[in-house]
């Protein structure tokens, strides 16, 4: 089994040290960087992934289209391309993504420095079956229903608010995306 290493960052995203994935997820709350990519189709629906029941964090919940850790020393753009290709099987040009911002997210066991982006792609997708049960394009009503019934991750719930603020979810979903 390969040991994954993540950079430990400060609240500005500057690398200070590094630690193993296990250490970052053991309740130590070591702040480490992740990337999220929200994929909309040309009709404005948002692609969500349903996490495998075997995942160590938020198993069986609906989550961001693509989300993953940035490996220690890995460039942000390389992490985006790697995660998108691994999770949904498409190649993407990071320069064509719409940046949504950066924020800190904290759960019971970890703290993440999240880089969030959005783009448009209609598929087809090839999912990473070891980590994802399914992906599905959903409209705002379907997403709100999943949130209301507790079927989404807390991190996605926060990002749904960010997507609403950016006017990417709702009446004019996906308008202005690359």
Can you walk me through this structure?
- The model has no long low-confidence stretch (mean pLDDT 93).
- Helix content is 21%, strand content 33%.
- The longest helix has 13 residues, at 76-88.
- The chain has helices at residues 21-24, 76-88, 140-148, 154-165; strands at residues 5-9, 15-20, 31-40, 46-51, 62-63, 66-69, 98-106, 111-120, 132-138.
- The chain is α+β, with helices and mostly antiparallel strands and 178 residues long.
- It has a single domain, classed as Nucleoside Triphosphate Pyrophosphohydrolase, CATH 3.90.79.
- One of its GO terms (molecular function) is hydrolase activity.
Summarize the structure.
This protein is of the alpha+beta class and about 180 residues long. The protein is built from four helices and nine strands, in the order E-E-H-E-E-E-E-H-E-E-E-H-H.
CATH architecture: Alpha-Beta Complex
The CATH H-level homologous superfamily: Nucleoside Triphosphate Pyrophosphohydrolase
Query: Kindly state the mean pLDDT as a whole number?
Result: 93
Coarse morphology: globular
Number of strands: 9
The N- to C-terminal Cα distance equals 38 Å
- Structurally, the number of domains stands at 1
Round the Cα radius of gyration to an integer and report it. 15 Å
GO molecular function, one term: hydrolase activity
InterPro entries: NUDIX_hydrolase-like_dom_sf, NUDIX_hydrolase_CS, NUDIX_hydrolase_dom
Protein name: NUDIX hydrolase
Keywords: Hydrolase
């Amino acid at each position: 089994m390969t040991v994954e290493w993540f950079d430990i960052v400060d609240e500005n995203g500057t690398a200070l040290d590094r630690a193993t994935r296990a250490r970052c997820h053991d309740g130590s709350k070591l702040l480490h960087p992740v990337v999220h990519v929200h994929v909309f189709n040309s009709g404005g629906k948002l692609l969500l992934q349903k996490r495998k029941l075997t995942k160590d964090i938020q198993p069986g919940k609906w989550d961001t289209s693509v989300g993953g850790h940035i490996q220690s020393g890995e460039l942000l753009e390389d992490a985006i391309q790697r995660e998108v290709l691994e999770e949904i099987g498409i190649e993407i040009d990071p320069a064509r993504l719409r940046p949504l911002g950066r924020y800190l997210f904290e759960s019971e066991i970890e703290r993440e420095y999240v880089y969030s982006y959005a783009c448009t792609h209609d598929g087809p997708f090839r999912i990473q079956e070891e980590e994802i049960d399914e992906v599905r394009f959903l409209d705002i009503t379907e997403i709100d229903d999943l949130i209301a019934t507790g079927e989404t991750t807390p991190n996605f719930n926060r990002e749904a608010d960010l997507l609403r603020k950016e006017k990417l979810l709702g009446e004019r979903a996906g308008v202005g995306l690359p």
